[in-house]
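Hi Y.,

Following your request, here is the sequence exactly as I used it, all 716 residues.
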Amino acid sequence: QLHSDLDKGVGTVKYTLSGDGAGTVFTIDETTGDIHAIRSLDREEKPFYTLRAQAVDVDTKKPLEPESEFIIKVQDINDNEPKFLDGPYVASVPEMSPVGAYVLQVKATDADDPTYGNSARVVYSILQGQPYFSIDPKTGVIRTALPNMDREVKEQYQVLIQAKDMGGQLGGLAGTTTVNVTLTDVNDNPPRFPKSIFHLKVPESSQVGSAIGRIRAVDPDFGKNAEIEYSIVPGDGGNLFDISTDDSTQEGVIRLKKPLDFETKKAYTFKVEASNLHLDHRFHSVGPFKDTATVKINVLDTEEPPVFSKPLYTMEVYEDTPVGTIIGAVTAQDLDAGSSSVRYYIDWKNDVDTFFSIDATEGTIATSELLDRESTAQYNFSIIASKVSNPLLASRVNVVINILDVNEFPPEISVPYETSVCENAKAGQVIQTVTAADRDLSPAGQRFSFRLSPEASNKPNFTVHDYRNNTAGIETRRNGYSRRQQELYFLPVVIEDSSYPVQSSTNTMTIRVCRCDSDGTILSCNVEAIFLPVGLSTGALVAILLCIVILLAIVVLYVALRRQKKKDTLMTSKEDIRDNVIHYDDEGGGEEDTQAFDMGALRNPKAMEESKLRRDIKPEAPRLPRARAEEGAGIQDFIHQRLQENDGDPSAPPYDSLATYAYEGTGSVAESLSSIDSLATEADQDYDYLSDWGPRFKVLAEMFGEEESYHPEKVT
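Below is the corresponding structure, written out as tokens. Let me know if you'd prefer a different format.
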């Protein structure tokens, strides 16, 4: 209750309440000042409330006193039970642990006020799980209560834990939780074989490395504590077998180390030991953590293929061995009871096998072709042996034949075959170190010797110095060399090997003279170096060559122009047809063919001038008056007239000439104008004098001496 000293109880004072929870949790009587809670309070939800109160005058609404603040604290009661916030719990403890071994600590939480009364005082106890475990009532620590709890007997335990407030007194509230405890395994049990003897049956044809049987020892432990290692105790037959552990089943797998042979031994007996890999020293007093059992193996007889006497055959043969030479043999036997004969043959896989053959009965191997070590140095093939009684039973063996070398190739100089020497080289200078190579298979320690050939021994230019270590040096024998005098030197070098028979070869080295600086560095070995001392550079040489090409082009052009000009001078103007000789190289088509030559030449009116003289000869006497064809006269009469004039003209040339007429007429019947038809000179000409001119005119005399002679026709 709130009360102001100014309140006289007459109703003039009004009380107000504000702050945390005012109007919702708490209310105040405005007249009396009594404060009431209007709903239930929970300390765990809100432990206190801060409020403000004031007295106000009813009439003036003014505060009668300053505002005052007060706190309402909620007093706790035991209304919350203890709770295990982390439950249920899972815990583990090793088996065979002693009493009091720590398992787990649990904790319960009480929401009540721990500072007021015993509402939050918690006490722990076990409701289920005794007598195996115990718990500390104050701390909640769980421990083992019995010794030597065995996982193999019981592995899982469920413990029910109670937490009670009020110090465990009557009327207190309680909460419970469950703890699941698992006993973890320790290696407290040795492996044990379920029986003392194991019997196995194994065929003698079993492959080496194959599994022939399994045995198992039992270990009740778990995980790595149950891992078992098996081993064979040394003794009878143990060296033929091996045993290993199957990690998934922990069984001992017995494998074959060597081949079995029923004819040699039919049964084997040995002992196998099983032991734990991970031992616990706390349990050594229990006894040895291992066990033994006996394994008896009976070998079953099977029909087997022939067996070779060796797993691999290696043979050697010289490369010059004649065809058909026996180089070795293979042997296989049938070891079964009532042994069968064996047949041999080569497993043909490629053409290499054709170099050899094998005797099917004896197993001897012979060459079938000539061998060359330089082509193939080693042959590797397989030979198969099968039973005659059962060819399906066969075995194979590899045969390696090494081809031995015969010294048949001479050694040769290794590259390079060409070297160089400086023009300023000194006598005794080494210009090249050479080595040799031999295509033959060189045996260890083979030596090569170097020397000059006899024909080069007396030359003063170069020599060969043998270093006795399969190398030699090319040395100069004089001071200075000149490229202008000789650019290349050829040095024959003789090389011999040390094999039998001795092989040798002569190798010619080319030595090129080069221009070098003072340190011996080569500057140039090409053609340009020869011209450099003269002062001609590469550009100058190119310019000279270009000038020569231009001059040649000018000469060719000049000659072509001269020929063209000469050809043009032979052509005469069409106006003077008599000075013009035209070659057609064609007989033409007769008088009616006007396309074969220019008809204008026969229609030149200027040629008809009376005073026009002949241009082909110089007249020696005055010409006779020329008759002119009268108008209307026939062309045939005109021609005959002119023909007689020319026949009697002393200035006429003694050869055929061309005369032009202004008009030939239409449908001319002039026929031939040849001198054969000349009237005046047929019988007057005597050509017998041609016989007196010598053998050069013999043919001409015979032609004109015939009964019907040909006479040239003269026409003007």
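Residues 686 and 705 are 8 Å apart (CA to CA).

Thanks again,
Q.
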